[in-house]
Amino acid sequence: MTTTASSEEYLEAVYKLQQREHPVRISKLAQSLGVAPASVTEMTKRLAQEGYLNRAEGVGVCLTQQGREAAVKTVRKHRLVERFLTDILGLPWEKVHDEACRFEHVVSDEVEEGLERLLGEPTTCPHGFPIPEKHAGTAKDTQGAVPLCELATGQSGKILAVDEEDPAMLSYLASLGLLPQVEIKVSEVAPFGGPQLVEVGGARYALGREVASKVWVVPGDGKRPARAPHGARQARGARAKKS
């Protein structure tokens, strides 16, 4: 069954959101797409009828096998285009996501294969997320990683990827050196949802929890960090200083 650009956007969004929650709530999908919940409800009903989604009223949606295959195909083209825009055209990483959204629906399979050869078969997009193989399984984009905001004081790890939807945030994180494959350590964590003080490349920065939630980190011990008791730690330095 042929998919439209609109349905591909929906399936791609569900694919990404399933990294964080399963099933995906309609409200969360609407927020991600910037579409009214009523419109999302109607579209997900249609996609369920076409076999792309499983839909439970009042609970949410998740991809069927058919839906996963369609979503992976779109995600693969999107991330190859992002790689082309950064590696060949020299665009900064904060600009390529929106551009790739426009190209991904018109890239033919032949052009996709050509891009992959031209780029030397890259394994990740500029933001660190894996470029799925053509017949990829259902492994998570963030396999083995957790949001930076879940790390406790003293924990360290390596940045795997950074959520790509917010250009201003990407530009800010790049200015701090928070890029894929960079080592990072949490020095202090303020209580009651306060900021984290992190160390990167010899410098220290305070990051709000919302920003830290967009940075995916593989913990140094490879284990998912345990949550600290609420308010157990206090941050003694709320202001970051760059070395």
Q: TL;DR of this structure?
A:
The protein has eight helices and eight strands.
The parts where pLDDT drops under 50 for at least 5 residues are 224-243
What oligomeric arrangement do these chains adopt? single chain
As a percent range, the share of strand residues is 15-25%
The 3D shape can be described as: globular
- End-to-end separation in angstroms reads 56 Å
- The tally of beta strands, per DSSP, is 8
Under CATH, the topology of the largest domain can be stated as Arc Repressor Mutant, subunit A
Series of H and E elements: HHHEEHHHEEHEEEHE
The whole-number mean of residue pLDDT values reads 86
CATH superfamily of the largest domain: Winged helix-like DNA-binding domain superfamily/Winged helix DNA-binding domain
CATH class of the largest domain: Mainly Alpha
Overall radius of gyration: 19 Å
Quickly give the structural class. alpha+beta
Helicity level, as a percent range?
Answer: 25-40%
Number of domains: 2
CATH architecture of the largest domain: Orthogonal Bundle
- The spatial strand order of the largest sheet comes to 3-8-4-5-6-7
Overview of the structural elements:
With 243 residues, the protein is of the alpha+beta class. The protein folds into two domains: 1-140, Winged helix-like DNA-binding domain superfamily/Winged helix DNA-binding domain (Arc Repressor Mutant, subunit A); 146-219, Ferrous iron transport protein A (FeoA) (SH3 type barrels), CATH 2.30.30. It has eight helices and eight strands, in the order H-H-H-E-E-H-H-H-E-E-H-E-E-E-H-E. The chain has helices at residues 5-17, 26-33, 37-49, 65-87, 96-103, 109-118, 167-176, 209-212; strands spanning 53-56, 60-63, 146-147, 156-162, 183-189, 196-200, 203-207, 215-219. Strands 3-8-4-5-6-7 form a six-stranded antiparallel β-sheet. The model is unreliable at 224-243 (pLDDT under 50).
